[in-house]
Amino acid sequence: MSSQRYLDVANTARPDSQSSAELSIYSDTPPTAPSSRLFHVYHRRRKLDFAISTAEKNPLAYVRCSTFTIGKPDLTYHAGETEDAPITAVCKFINFSRHCKVGLGNPDDPNIAWEDLTRHKLTTHYRFEITLDTGERRAFIWKRTNTVGIGEEKPSKISSKNFKLQDEQTEELVAVYLNNGMKSRKKSGKFQINVDYGAVFDTMVIITGLGLLEKERRRARSQEGAAGGG
To answer: N or C: which end of the chain has fewer CB within 10 A?
Structure first.
C-alpha cells in the first residue's frame, strides 16, 4: 500500500473532527473540546482480538492479535469492521526485549514507515516519535495511571490497564485509555484523543495503546499459568 493510499484508507475510516482548540496542557483531566474524540474498544474472538468503533458506535478498525504465529505481527490494525479490511498499521514485540516496532502502513509495502516504541529504563513508561501532518517530529510517552479518567469515569486504583499519553516536551495530556474493568464482558475499554493531529496519529495512538494493553494481558496470563502450574 502506498503512503497516499494509506492516508486515504485511514481518513475514510476516521470520524470527522474539528481543528484543535486551546487546551490546558498541564491538566490531568481530559478536556471537553471539539477536538476530543472517543473510540470504544470491544473484545472479539474470545477476547483475543479488538474491535474499535467511534463514539457513534460506527466500526473503525479490527485489530488482530497473534501470539504464536511465526512471522506475523503481534498486532495487525485493519481499517474496517473485519480482518479482511486493508492493513494500515502493525505492532511487533521484539523478542527478548521490552521494546516494540510499529509500522504505519502495510508490511508488504516497501514504503511502510517504521517507528520505535521503547520502554524507559526502570519505569513502565513507553515512548514513541512520529512525524505529524505538519512535518514536525514530536515525541510522546505512554504512562500507566490510576488517577486520569474520561469524563466522570475514573480508573480503578488497582488496575494496571489504564494509560495516559503525554507530549514529551509540553506534558500536554494527549490521550487516555480507560479500562472497562468488570462492567461488561464484551467491552475492553475506550480511548479519548484530545488533539487533532490527523488520521495517522490517531492510528498510532490506538495501536501503541493496544500494544501496551496486549503486553499487560500476556503478562497476566503468564502469571496465571505459572501460579496454576505451581
So the answer is: C
